[in-house]
Amino acid sequence: MNAYELLILNRNILQVMDGVSLDVGDVKYIPVYQEYMRLLREGHKKTYIMQYLSDEYNIAERTIYRIIDKFSSTVNI
Does 77 fall in a domain? Predict the structure, then answer.
């Protein structure tokens, strides 16, 4: 399979991702979001969660906020 065939095969999902500003590289942040949701369910405060995730994943707090906002957005397919 070449790059063209891969794009054609996944064209629809890639167009949806582009429409909601999701990048393929955002896949690396899935564990961050999963950890955020777990901590939120456990009742931790958002400020604590953001600090914890920033320290745990060595990512700026502002980036954590952007990840959470992006992954929490509603996607219409």
Answer: no
